[in-house]
Amino acid sequence: MQERSFPKNFIWGAASSSFQIEGTVPGDGRGPSIWDDFCAQPGRIRDGSNGLVACDHYRLWPRDVELLSELGARAYRFSMAWPRIFPEGRGRSNAIGLDFYKRLIDSLLEKNITPWVTLYHWDLPFALERKGGWRNRNTAFAFADYAAYCVAQLGDRVKHWITHNEPWCVAVLGHRLGEHAPGLQNPRAALETAHHVLLSHGLAMQRIRELAPDATAGITLNLNPAYPATPGKPEDEAAAHLFDGDFNRWYLDPLFRACYPEDMIQHHENQGALGPRGWDFIQQGDLKTIAQPNDFLGVNYYSRTVLGERSAAEKAAQKDPLHYTAMDWEIHPEGLQDLFVRLARDYPVKAWYITENGAAYADQLTADRQIHDAHRLRYLALHLDQVAQVCARGIPLKGYFAWSILDNFEWAHGYEKRFGLVYVDYASQERIPKASFHWLKEVIAANKVFDVL
Ligand code: FCB
Hints:
- By secondary structure, this protein is of the alpha/beta class.
- The radius of gyration is 21 Å and the shape is globular.
- The strands form 4 sheets. The chain has an 8-stranded parallel β-barrel, surrounded by 5 helices. Strands 1-14 form a two-stranded antiparallel sheet. Strands 7-9 form a two-stranded parallel sheet.
- The protein has one domain: Glycosidases (TIM Barrel, Alpha-Beta Barrel), CATH 3.20.20.
- Helices cover 42% and strands 14% of the residues.
- Helix 15 (374-392) runs parallel beside helix 16.
- It contains 16 helices and 14 strands.
- Residues 17, 20, 165-166, 169, 222, 300, 356, 403, 410-411, 419 line the site of beta-D-fucopyranose.
């Protein structure tokens, strides 16, 4: 790997989300979320855990801000827990919850770390789920009200807003595959959810523009480039195109072209995904609302997907930590560059940010309480090498947020999967920066990625 520089003013940051790190801390007025409920259902979370304590960030945040500062982060992407602000989803607000974020934000600003606030990273107030959650169009309006409240209260301090994190996960993992809260397996519910989440983005963007014309606002998608196992083989090509439609274009096209992709509309109809009511949840004008101008698109990139029969050698690589992370996600850094070349060609986006990228590995504490996470470090180096190449092509990729600053609650995997730059000893809540943290700190300081392999 050769040494590569990043553009001047490149934004270096790290990311987290509320439910994964805060701990729910009953007593401070937070209402229950769909993830509290989901964790309480037997068999949903692999290690039977929940978010009650997590990284206890709600109490230990000053230490975590110190760590971000030690890393040299210029920006910190975190999410606000909607049920901390509106315990019932709408109506009565909870000042204690808001004060928590005010303190956190003020402390970041004191350290010259720019807050990038995600408004929704999956912890929907449970009171709204009782009324149909994201299947109910009213939730989109409740979200816009919540967004407007946050911007009105915090807009003096926060200038960077991300409405949603990964609508595909909310729709498909939550409502089609049932792996995430609320755990439904209903293809129509997934399509309704995707639509209402996108609509809520558009509605929230309108409110953000009214209230904070100087703010920078956009959305984060998880994008996963699809490749045919055998290029040129018609079945594999078709499968890759379908995967791309379901995972990527179903969100990109409405946001940036004000339409759903025709081939996918057809596909869902052929699959009988909609039931007798068809597309009745899409109302006139919705797509125009969804396609509000965004200041940026956040992209979470972890891996690619290959469709079709893979070669024996490729299959054998599946147990190899140089090719697959502990999530069983293939390591494919080139996919990042391919993805951005394609995105920049197909979608009129003014600025791009990588709002998540990182890897889970089974970290081992050494006797002297260190973490030599060589595989994670290599993963980051290979991906940053691609990021630098994307920038060198003149594509306006303006920043990179590592996932995650801390080990945390990895959703259905519980605490078994560690993504942090900082190790969390959950028994004592001690934070131990890993080798990857020390390395990234040097990369940030030099604004260059260099060979460490
Ligand atoms: C993304 C999520 C994030 C984290 C990473 C590993 O899909 O946005 O919360 O779980 O994956």
